[in-house]
Amino acid sequence: LTETIGISTTTTLLSGSVEIDGSSTVYPITEAVAEEFMKLYPHVRVTVGISGTGGGFKRFVEGETDINDASRPILKSEAEAATKKGVGWIEIPIAIDGLAVVVNPDNDFVDCLTISELREIWRPDSKVKFWSDVRPEWPKEAIRLYGPGPDSGTFDFFTERVVGKLKSSRTDYVASEDDNVLVASVESEKYALGYFGYAYYVNNKERLKIVAIKDDAVPGSECVVPNDETVTTFAYPLSRPLFIYVNRERFDKKPELREFVYFYLENGAKFVKTVHYVPLSDNYYRLATAALKSGITSGLYELTLIKGKDLGPS
Predict the structure, then answer these.
(1) How far apart are CA 231 and CA 96, in angstroms?
(2) Average model confidence (pLDDT) for the chain?
(3) What is the pLDDT of residue 231?
(4) Could you tell me which of 98, 45, 54, 93 has the C-alpha nearest to residue 75?
(5) Counting Cβ atoms within 10 Å, is residue 301 exposed (0-12), middle (13-18) or buried (19+)?
(6) Residue pair 111/213 in contact by the 8 Å Cβ criterion
(7) Mean pLDDT, rounded, for 2-8
(8) Average of pLDDT values for 78-100?
């Protein structure tokens, strides 16, 4: 699908606003981009919300925002709602993220958990109350669970990947859409277990202990710690792509929105690294930018998969 895209407005004349909401995981990237963009275009106001992927899509499909940050692809139900409202979208991958599983730094017995163990802990009918319920040799101390709420794309990814069903999770845990709250909570509870975006661990590694993850459904698999290399290659079992969704009609009509998206992609690798996520290849960002500027607004995700070795930095 192609559409005609207008000519960019000059820096001095560009004005207006860009409204963004969505994923707390993608937020640090978009916020960094917005700050630099507004320095270059001082007459454009860019606001970035943090209501979670699902919460952001609720606003996006109503046409309330220009961009939704998303840590998962748009759901079928969300796509149908957008179509009914006449809202089209452009799906743009912007980075790769690993979902970090963390415990308190004083935890001296958990170094690795399997996907099966995580499933037993987090499934809706879980009987796990104490660490000893996971492995008998671990202490009989109550597990204090922390994680994102049901509006979060991280919650969606975790439940589908780990529990095996989208949005299927036990509910007796402390939920927050703010990953900084989760970091502080795990830090304050000796027997806590939590999960959130990898970048939040990197920015708080002195306050937390990372847990390696083993995909025990794969024969011969080992415990893998998330880092730039294991996340980029998807060797880490909880790796995932991150996206921005752009309102297609407004992309055509609002010069400030087009310039923001171009700026996002043209500087994508730099901003992604700045906030400690893993960028896609330099070649991907070039191809995606060129595609959008030439009027191609679909198939950008496929560029990360089929144009050479595009799932990691060049």
Answers:
(1) 7
(2) 90
(3) 87
(4) 54
(5) middle
(6) no
(7) 40
(8) 94
Please tell me the distance from the alpha carbon of residue 209 to that of residue 292, in angstroms, as a whole number.
Answer: 41
Q: Each residue of 212-271: pLDDT tens digit?
A: 999 999 999 999 999 888 987 889 999 988 999 999 999 999 999 999 999 999 998 899
CA nearest 93: which of 111, 106, 74? Answer: 74
Q: Is 194's pLDDT higher than 70? A: yes
Q: Which pLDDT score is estimated for 5? A: 41
The torsion of the CA quartet 286, 292, 293, 295, rounded to 10 degrees, works out to: 140
Say how far apart CA 77 and CA 247 lie, in whole Å: 17
Distance (Å, rounded) from C-alpha 237 to C-alpha 184? 25
Residue entry with tokens 């937020």: 27
pLDDT at position 126 over 50: yes
3-class SS letters over the chain: CECCCCCCCCCCCCCEEEEEEECCCCHHHHHHHHHHHHHHCCCEEEEECCCCHHHHHHHHCCCCCCEEEECCCCCHHHHHHHHHHCCCEEEEEEEEEEEEEEECCCCCCCCEEEHHHHHHHHCCCCCCCEHHHCCCCCCCCECEEEECCCCCHHHHHHHHHHHCCCCCCCCCCEECCCHHHHHHHHHHCCCEEEEEEHHHHHCCCCCCEECEEECCCCCCCCCECCCHHHHHCCCCCCEEEEEEEEEHHHHHHCHHHHHHHHHHHHCHHHHHHHCCCECCCHHHHHHHHHHHHCCECCCHHHHHHHCCCCCCCC
> What HEC string does 32-75 produce?
HHHHHHHHHCCCEEEEECCCCHHHHHHHHCCCCCCEEEECCCCC
